[in-house]
Amino acid sequence: MALLKPTEVTEGIFQLPAIASRVTALVSGDSVTLVDAGLKGSAKWIVRGLGRIGVSVEQLSTIAITHHHPDHSGGLSGLRKFTSAKIVAHRSDAAVVLGDKLAPNPYQNRLAALLASPVLPAFYGPTMPVDHQMDGGNNLPFMESVQVIHTPGHTPGSMSLYVRDKGVLIVGDALEYRRGKLKPPARMFTEDRNQAIESLRQLLELDFETICFSHFPALVKDAKNALRDMVEETAN
Questions:
Q1: Which of 128, 169, 185, 209 lies at a CB distance of 3.0 to 4.6 Å from 190, suitable for a disulfide?
Q2: Furthest CA-CA distance within the chain
Q3: Under a CB-based contact definition with an 8 Å cutoff, are residues 63 and 34 in contact?
């Protein structure tokens, strides 16, 4: 379900409405980086949301995709009609976005995967160029204060973004936040759950207070301690 209006997480960081997810806008001066693109058809939602926070789509310099699933990458082709922003993805998922590799079925349940298979290509939308293929530890182009953290498991190329000067983590689907509690990514859509949980441990090495998710409201206070508690509970 799309958000009805943009939400300010902290100064310069906003969550915007998209179809089937929410996207995050990082505003730094005249430059805007968008994290994820929503499902196919989300472009008008996103452009409208940018306007509501006082920036234009022409200010977009970068669109960073946390992973290749269609509710994160499907809106890229629509956004390209409005902007020439550079597209960024982790190199392990870039081949799917580029079309060099067939998009795997995100459903891990065999029956669900079988039922979804005929319609998945329509949700993914057209393949798109990836201007920058990232590795863990890289900084985002045009926004040096944002570091790529490779958090594989949900998909091989799932990446989180660490906004160092704001103490904010943007985790895509690497985490869920249900009924006031952090949880590992959904089993239904996670390729390697054990790897996904192991990826969360490295996030505890970072200094952050806030976590932004793709399908849940942001956890804006004491997020690192909440993540530490979740990791410890999962290990027991």
A1: 185
A2: 49
A3: yes
Q: In sequence order, what E strands does 66-190 have?
A: 86-90, 132-134, 139-140, 143-150, 159-163, 168-170, 176-178, 181-183
Tens-digit pLDDT profile for residues 69-104: 999 999 999 999 999 999 999 999 999 999 999 888
pLDDT tens digit sequence for 150-195: 999 999 999 999 999 999 999 999 999 998 999 999 999 999 999 9
Q: How far apart are CA 221 and CA 123, in angstroms?
A: 34
Instruction: For residue 146, give the nearest of 66, 68, 228 by alpha carbon.
Output: 66
Question: What H or E segment, with its residue span, contains residue 16?
Answer: strand 13-17
Q: 0.85 cut: is pTM over it?
A: yes
Extract the tokens encoding 127: 């393949």
